Amino acid sequence: MKIDELELRRVAMPLVSPFRTSFGTQTAKDILLVRVVVDGEEGWGECVTLPDPVYSPEYTDGAVDVIRRVMAPALAGVEFAGAHMIGELLGHIKGHRMAKAAIEMAVLDAELRAAGRSFARELGAVHTTVPCGVSVGIMDEIPRLLDAVDAYLDEGYVRIKLKIEPGWDVDVVRAVRERIGDDVQLQVDANTAYTLRDATHLARLDEFDLLLIEQPLEEEDILGHAELARLVRTPICLDESITSAQTAAAAIRLGATSIINIKPGRVGGYLEARRIHDLAVANGVPVWCGGMVESGLGRAANVALAALPGFTLPGDVSASDRFYKTDLTEPFVMRDGHLTVPTGPGLGVAPIPEVLDELTTWIEPLRM
Ligand code: NPG
Question: Is pLDDT of 331 > 90?
């Protein structure tokens, strides 16, 4: 097969409410989409970069540049056997995993559409629905957070993740645990906001029976996480640090992570995400599917991935309306705390043309 067309597109999607993490506040998403035509079949990919390199080194303008100047030329006119070759064909390019993931996702979508096969079937999904967790941002005051958590539980979310940072941690978690009781699954995400010197402080979270603490230390501090894991009882779960199956294997071996958050963009695509899943299963390490505030396109693929057997914890897989009043695709609607895994060819969803047109801010077709 061959990529006949590759088009970059940016869409501006307002968020229903500001989303604050330890690295900043988002009020709208500027999403980079990759549209390909492969042997006459269209496919869509979503690049999960942020506008600035504050979550990982990648950022959206950088992704546009590297796709335009380096990746598209490397694929232009090239015959390849399938989407599984995209990683290989782009393998000489260092890093830029989110950009690579977006291209691979688009090609995989086109390939599977042509074959009449779904992402879920291709990746090896075993469930028809997946449980929904929700990630709750940092707020100005605890009462507002408690109201937000109450509302999410009323909607049916089965697991709460609280964003934490120094000054918004132990008291906040205590208040939420008291409000929701012992039975609701609760976890926290620090997005690298602490250092090993905070170990004693973080150990104070142990009393709240959390499922896990996610990425407390810097992304490169694998040994620090291994040390921290000996100092706190709450399981450590890595996110930012896990960029490939190789880094996952090292982190598991070193005892730095006992649970893994798998985000396909962060690791270079859905196929590498599946390899990390397989590795984790072989090592008895539970995994869950992370989220990057995706539109319905990325959400569709995430839901398919989250239906693999090793995804034994609820993911940051929420309904479209958690973030967006209007999604780019048919919205993902939660029923009984679950989303239904799409079964149609490819992603099983596609952008709604009028919505896409209205939200699009920029289009650039690349020469292939
Ligand atoms: O449900 O899509 C979602 C968001 C989940 O909290 C979430 N994502 O660090 O995991 C994270 C965080 C994030 C969001 C990171 C956006 C980067 C960008």
Answer: yes
